Amino acid sequence: MESGLYKISHWIMRLAHLNLLWILFTFIGLVAAGIFPSTTAMFTIVRDWVRGEHDKPIFSTFWATYKKEFSRSNLLGSIVLIIGIILYVDYFYFLNMQGAIGTAMSILFITTAVLYLMLVSFLFPVLAHYDFKTIDYIKYSFIVGASYPLHTFYIVLSVGVVLYATVVFPVILVFFSGSFLSLLIMRFAYTAFEKIDKKITAN
């Protein structure tokens, strides 16, 4: 019983520690330049946890990854953000279109939005797990998301549930929202990575 309570409290402290680092370093980068490298560093740590590597120091690992991935994370994050903004603007544009053209453009928008979700769902897990050339992270994230749509669905569902919980219980935002969500996402993503690695090994 005590061992179980210790493990639970230990995980709570870990997640809270990581979440506070994520928020702190996001603001250190003045938010716009800090959110992407901070998120990459957070995913790197939870990736180690998912792999069973629990002994690595959280702060030093976070700081080292934040510095190493600062430029690349901001570049990739900015590209994905710009695509998202374009889709957001297009949504309101297509919303006012009517007739066959409006229907066709709506179908095109929905298809593009789904593909975008596949990309976004796996971008940070891929950044944390693989070592590619910068642009290849976008390609591979999309490939994984498209190859494993069920995993993508679980990731999107997890985001929705955590966001809802954050609205209902705002204190979660400070202590657990980012770290707990990244842990959920990485668990689903890592399962997909393992399947891919097995296929590569088999061939």
TrEMBL record:
<protein>
    <submittedName>
        <fullName>DUF624 domain-containing protein</fullName>
    </submittedName>
</protein>
<feature type="transmembrane region" description="Helical">
    <location>
        <begin position="140"/>
        <end position="165"/>
    </location>
</feature>
<feature type="transmembrane region" description="Helical">
    <location>
        <begin position="100"/>
        <end position="128"/>
    </location>
</feature>
<feature type="transmembrane region" description="Helical">
    <location>
        <begin position="171"/>
        <end position="190"/>
    </location>
</feature>
<feature type="transmembrane region" description="Helical">
    <location>
        <begin position="75"/>
        <end position="94"/>
    </location>
</feature>
<feature type="transmembrane region" description="Helical">
    <location>
        <begin position="20"/>
        <end position="46"/>
    </location>
</feature>
<keyword id="KW-1133">Transmembrane helix</keyword>
<dbReference type="Pfam" id="PF04854">
    <property type="entry name" value="DUF624"/>
</dbReference>
<keyword id="KW-0812">Transmembrane</keyword>
<keyword id="KW-0472">Membrane</keyword>
<dbReference type="InterPro" id="IPR006938">
    <property type="entry name" value="DUF624"/>
</dbReference>
